[in-house]
Write a structure and sequence with these properties.
Distance between the termini: 47 Å
Radius of gyration: 18 Å
Number of helices: 13
Shape: globular
Order of helices and strands: HHHHHHHHHHHHH
Largest sheet: none
Number of strands: 0
Length: about 260
Amino acid sequence: MPSTEAIVRLAVFGGVLAAMLIWEEIAPRRHPAAGRGRRRLNNTALLVVGTAAVRLALPVLATGAALWAQAQGFGLLNAVPLPAIVAVPAAVVLLDLGIYWQHRLLHAVPLLWRLHRVHHTDPDFDVTTALRFHPLEMAVSLLFKLAMVLAIGASPLAVLLFEIILSAAAMFSHGNVGLPAWLERRISPIIITPDLHRVHHSLQPSEQAHNFGFFLAVWDRWFGTLQAQPQGGHAAMAIGQPSFRGPDDQRLDRLLLQPLQSEQ
């Protein structure tokens, strides 16, 4: 039987994914590229393959690590007596900071970039781009997350909340949608919006080196990696990487083997 945690996470994931797909159909920010159905199918298939592979290879989940750390008194927040009303939000914020720096490492370390590049070679940008991660990157990310949970001493509740927020925020920030200008101005200083994250998926390397945050936008502001707008505007900006732009490059087998290939 699925655990309560798994049911909650799956329900939130399915609900946010469905809402974003509907939003993209009703009010797309950019005109979708050709072959959208095939690309979306392969992006989703990559998530299914990666999730199954990682669960088989690394059955330990982040909440399990949190339970162990709590029982052993391991980690920063387990060593400092704080009420849950303080400790839980603090853990979520620290985990989000860790994900920001993990994302920067994925771009900075050549071997890790080969894995993360699969995400960036999507020639379009919509909610299914948030599902497009190579299984090996998913495994690396899980190991990094386990290390963060143990070091921070995040509680199981904090980890569950963070997992839900991270999943929902990733699908929102990758959506082919736009917010009203007044709302964008108010929330983009706090959280990563689709317009902010879309810049990170630009074909231009200088723009890819910005907007690494997944949920909170404050890290990009504090560490000098924020770029509010693409140089040519959102409607005209090219998405993806110079290599792997052909239709066949979007096939599932090509995506799985892509880290073995060099960029042209």
